[in-house]
Amino acid sequence: MDLDESHAIPTYTMVIGATRMTASIHRPVVNGRDSIPIEVWAYPEDSAFADSVPFRRATEIVETLQRLVGPFPYETLKHVESATRYGGMENATAIFYDQQMYVRRRMGEGVVRHETAHQWFGDAVTPRAWPHVWLSEGFASYFDLVAGAAMDSSGVLGLGLAGAARAYMRSNVVDRPIIDTAADDPMQLLNANSYQKGAWVLHMLRGLVGDSAFFRGVREYYRTFRDSSVTSDDFARVMQRAADRDLRWFFTQWLRQPGYPQLDVRWEADSARGRVTLRVRQIQPLAWGTYRIASLVVELRSPGGAAVRRTVEIAASRGDQTFTFESSGSPGQVAIDPEHAWLLTAEVRH
To answer: For 266-306, how does the pLDDT look when each residue is reduced to its tens digit (9 = 90+)?
Structure first.
């Protein structure tokens, strides 16, 4: 195995191991005159499974992430079966995966996308301090899904985010912020805030600023801080420049406040005047604070199935917020955030 690497590697992703393995050579990633060898190292009895299932598209994953983010940061990439304590560990250039997933034949491509994304986020661009570990785990969790959607369909992203929301809302860290400076043990920060909620922060930011500004900002962030360490404020500043707007409120509430908005929504229709009135109140625990939702979509669905959408802004307030829409008829149903653009819950009553 070639151990030479000219690029900087953070010390926590340096590993060494020795055993008898089978090495499979996959198609390299070609960047002009340069190429990145892609190899899969597994125990002989697991090699065929590794090549045909989880690592079948190992090269395509790197190519997809390059298109989304920027050049692969290292000179080679090896995927290695190992006795790691984690499902996967993003060691730079030599990712380790838990051997039990191979033995049980339950390893899928998702973990490969996640750990490969770490080569950009976590390895080449490294959180400067543990409270900012979402810059590693949240990014890898989100770009796992984004790469999957680019390679297959948007359903990968939608289903993945739905699962992430459920996992986060069921977790025991909802009452703590993502940037949790009070945690005594860094291992406590490897939780649903850093992974699932962190992924949702990126998705909400993307929806808020649009695809063009979001990916332009992510590429600039990677290009600026490659081979160095960062804080959340570094990322926020780059994204503000890319979007050309003030996003301090967004990063403050989603990174430094606990929880998420829980909305109580009541609506009534005035058929005579052709109006629908919506009253929205934030009812999440007081300790979570209040949230601004800059562009919340409200969908009015008629009994016949036709739908009309309106967009409102929810202020960071606990008082009733009232919105009135013109409507040609009385809707049979009102849906809040039908595209699931925000990490929230809404109880809608008529």
So the answer is: 999 988 888 999 999 999 999 999 999 999 999 998 887 78
As a whole number of angstroms, the distance between CA 6 and CA 1 comes to 15
Q: How much is the pTM?
A: 0.94
296: Cβ contacts below 8 Å, ≥ 6 apart: 311, 312, 313, 314, 336, 337, 342
Q: Exposed/middle/buried for 67, CB within 10 Å: 0-12, 13-18, 19+?
A: exposed
For residue 121, give the nearest of 212, 224, 28, 226 by alpha carbon: 226
- Taking CB atoms within 8 Å and a gap of at least 24, the contacts of 114-117 are 114/88, 114/140, 114/141, 114/144, 115/79, 115/88, 115/89, 115/90, 115/140, 116/58, 116/61, 116/62, 116/65, 116/77, 116/147, 117/65, 117/143, 117/144, 117/147
Q: Which of 92, 146, 147, 94 minimizes the C-alpha distance to 124?
A: 92
Hey, which CATH number is domain 126-256, 1.10.390.10, 1.20.1440.60, 3.40.50.300, 1.10.287.90? Answer: 1.10.390.10
CA 233/CA 199 separation, integer angstroms:
17
Longest alpha-carbon distance in the chain: 79
Residues 6+ apart with CB under 8 A from 348: 265, 266, 267, 334, 335, 336
Domain limits of the chain?
Answer: 11-120, 126-256, 262-349
Model confidence over 76-121: pLDDT tens digits? 999 999 988 888 999 999 999 999 999 999 999 999 999 999 999 9
Is residue 51 within 8 A of residue 59, CB to CB? The reply is no
Query: What phi-psi label fits residue 173: left (phi over 0), alpha (psi between -120 and 50 degrees) or beta?
Result: alpha
| Residue 261, helix vs strand vs coil | coil
Site of tokens 């730079």: 92
Instruction: Name the average pLDDT for the chain.
Output: 94
